[in-house]
Design a protein that fits this description.
One of its GO terms (molecular function) is ATP binding. By secondary structure, the chain is an alpha/beta fold. It has one domain: Acetylglutamate kinase-like (Carbamate kinase). α1 crosses α3. The longest helix is centred in the middle third of the chain and has 25 residues. β1, α1 and β2 form a beta-alpha-beta unit. The strands form 2 sheets. A 9-stranded mixed β-sheet has the order 4-3-5-2-1-6-10-11-9, sandwiched between helices. Strands 7-8 form a two-stranded antiparallel ribbon.
């Protein structure tokens, strides 16, 4: 395997499958089996999931809700998704730990870096819920922060498109896909990979990002094996 330790970033919307909201059990099971395939190769995996399939803080704030309150609701949504993925992984026979940035001791461990590292070394998949624990920060920022803290080799951003394009490929049939692109070029071209805070943090810490299609079976294994699929962003 090309990478020893990865952080996988999944959007909450990815868990919806073909539904309008909530969690699709079939999609959850597919992800669990893809992740299990990686653990069997000895790669250490940490995961951050968004909560947009349940509640988005920014959307709540735009409808008149207090932004801090709305973001706290979004953090709880990511914990719900984390519990769902933990259950699916354990059903597949994968030892898993859920750690949260907000304390909910009855359902998850608090985030403790040394404990997270120990879990990874023991071959457990670690899911980080609750974002960063702070309002005004996205789960993209949480993913980059946790990846740096656990010294991950790469961030794998699983999406429903197969990489980064110069335009939205779902709207523009002539959109051109990049196989590799630098952090500077992403910023210069105004391409949307992650929010600016998360992207800058990744750039400053020289942490590469690979954007790929998570919904195609076997892609996760191919990326971790070093195959040139998706788009790699690095210096």
């Amino acid at each position: 395997m090309k990478y020893k330790r990865i952080l996988l970033k999944l959007s909450g919307e990815a868990l919806m499958g073909n539904r309008q909201y909530g969690i699709d059990p079939d999609r959850l099971s597919e992800y669990a089996h893809d992740i299990k395939e990686i653990t069997e190769t000895g790669v250490e995996i940490a995961i951050v999931i968004g909560g947009g399939n349940i509640f988005r803080g920014v959307a709540g704030a735009s409808n008149g809700m207090d932004r801090v309150q709305a973001d706290h609701m979004g953090m709880l949504a990511t914990v719900i998704n984390g519990l769902a993925l933990q259950s699916a992984l354990e059903d597949a026979g994968v030892p898993t730990r859920l750690q949260t940035a907000i304390h909910i001791e009855q359902v998850a461990e608090p985030f403790i870096r040394r404990r997270a590292l120990r879990h990874l070394e023991k071959g457990r998949v670690v899911i980080f819920g609750g974002g960063t624990g702070n309002p005004y920060f996205t789960t993209d920022s949480a993913a980059v922060l946790r990846a740096i803290e656990i010294e991950a080799d790469v961030i794998l951003k699983g999406t429903r498109v197969d990489g980064i394009y110069n335009a939205d490929p779902e709207l523009d049939s002539k959109a051109i896909k990049f196989d590799h692109i630098s952090f500077e070029d992403v910023l210069r071209k105004g391409l949307k990979v992650m929010d600016t805070t998360a992207f800058t943090l990744s750039q400053e810490n020289e942490l590469p990002i690979i954007v790929f299609d998570m919904n195609k079976k076997g892609n996760l294994l191919r990326v971790v094996s070093g195959e040139n699929i998706g788009t790699k962003v690095n210096l």
